[in-house]
Hints:
The chain is of the alpha/beta class. Helices cover 44% and strands 15% of the residues.
Amino acid sequence: MENRLTVFHLDDGKELRGGQRQLLYLAKELSRLGHANTVVCRAGSPLHKAAERKGFPVLTLPYFFEWDPVSALLLRRAVKNLGAAAGSPPVLHSHTSHTAAISWLASAGLDCVRVAHRRVDFIPGAFTARFKYAKAHSVIAISDAVKEILLKADVPEEKVAVVNSTIDLDETPWKPGEFPAYRAAARQALAAELDIPAEAFWAGSLIALVPHKDPENMVRAAALVLKDAPETFFLIAGEGPLAEKTAHLARMLKIQDRFKLIGYRSDPYKILAALDMFVLSSAEEGMGSVLVEAMNAGLPIVATTAGGIGDVIENGANGLTVAPRDHGALAAAQLRLIADNELRERLAGEAHRRREDFSSPRMAALTLKCYETAIENFKRNRHPLE
């Protein structure tokens, strides 16, 4: 398809986390291919500010609630204003569950294509599955595990495509050959900031402190690790509703001096580059795009097998994996890596090599194929709203 596409990327998030970054990566790559992209987000949100910094057109909606008719009418007006100038039918790409509802309402009777992205690995309710996903023209699952969940929710298989999340390699803050110097500077700066020894072993993670990431599992595993490797430090970058509960558990287990909750960081690679090992303790996980960032930083990885993590980490090849909610197994895998420098180097090397399997150009090409297939089907069947 040679036509220039017009894509509205819908996201109602109040933060700038993995899903919002994926949206920006996709918009960047589609723009490079000559397609028009508008980011549809909350006014003043971190995504709004990031999209403007990157030069993307922005449409702000209030997103009052899931089936908000005000947001739907404003989006509908923007789509109608395109008129025939759009060429191909515009694409409404919902990057969150709530915006899939807004998209459905806004598109009633219009010539446009609805694409719904599913990033989480739990079964949607029957109403959600029917109107947000089964009635979309195309559904993108970020992993095979998420696809299987959609199929269990009776979303037609022919509508579902797997497109893994990715990283933008252009955002890597070091050039080839410069990583050792970048790592040394990052480690010295963090050691001074956090008052921890630069020569110690640093394990860590970049996670939202929310239930499905299971930060308590991380704390309990860390307590076991510290019994056998007491000189280890844990650096956890992130924020969320479980921050105080996580800190309290660390105090209860008497590891608060070694388990550092360092809050949200706008420079994730500074943290990743400084670590000796990356740990992901998730109980549920759509895919875990942060794992690809850790791979790009050449880190050995310990993760659970939750959700779509298996799409990224192959146990024994580019990381070690254990069952979710098993802090004993999570600790044992970490201790194995701490004790075996050769294993760490082998896993880190393979992880770094595989990072290119998750490049943003590849993700954009697969997403564009989903758009094109959905548009061709739409033109043949001409059913704006199913």
